[in-house]
Amino acid sequence: MPELSNINVVKEILGRHGFKFSKSLGQNFIVNPDLCPRIAEESGVGPGICALEIGPGIGVLTKELALRAEKVLSIEIDKALLPVLKETLGEFDNVTILNADVLELDLKAVIKEHFGDMPFVVCANLPYYITSPIIMKLLEENIGAENLTVMVQKEAAVRIAAKPGTRDCGAISAAINYYSEPEKLFDVSKGNFVPPPNVTSAVIRLVLRKEPPVKVEDEGRFFRVIKASFSQRRKTLTNSLSSGLGKGKEEILAALEQCGLGPNARAEELSLEDFAALTKILG
User: Fold this and answer.
1) CA-CA distance, 130 to 152, in Å (whole number)?
2) Given this model, what pLDDT does residue 71 score?
3) What is the spatial distance between Cα 276 and Cα 283, in angstroms, rounded to a whole number?
4) Contact 150, 183 (CB under 8 A)
5) In whole angstroms, what is the distance from residue 212 CA to residue 226 CA?
6) 259: three-class secondary structure by DSSP
7) Of 2, 127, 142, 265, which shows the fewest CB atoms inside 10 Å?
């Protein structure tokens, strides 16, 4: 197998296949030989466990997953990378490359087709321009993964791993904590990629919860309240909820008081239990 952490080898392979990097697809390929083995190990993949990867690039992380996993299903949107991946991963008979847009797939059906009932993890260097939509799709569709171990932009990693009730918490943080237990593992500098991105990256792991930490009757309504709460971060919760839900401030203030929250409370101060209580009262 070609040495995919060697920049000259990577450029030679890509040049031979006439591949050009796409800025719109956020393509930055890993060239640090120590990074992908570490990410694969952190995912917990191993014998009897499969791996779902999104955005394999030239296959450098895919290779490490294939060396450890029972099966690897890698979803790649860019047709131009298919001949490249055929060459770089040709020696592995436990890897399947699916040319598709992950956001348009019925993931449960695809996973069932390829993995059956075998346990699996998600492990990927996610395209940074659609990090949140991909992660939320993986969580909301309850695909059955043991965990998600993914590399994202560091700024996004901080938000994703933030706990409710802390300064860095946002709507995405609250939603992710509802579905999983997030943890930021380590940072990854720009020099680990070709071409180098403009941002520092970080690897995070989301361990999927068997049950949400709070019980809500209507998840859609619960997340609408969370989204409205964070819609105007510089304003108080009273103003944000009033504007976001189309309700009068007196009604919002009464609901906050019932939840034991002051009139000047802000969204980042609330726990998931607080959001659940507010949802129940505001309806």
Assistant:
1) 10
2) 98
3) 11
4) no
5) 15
6) coil
7) 142
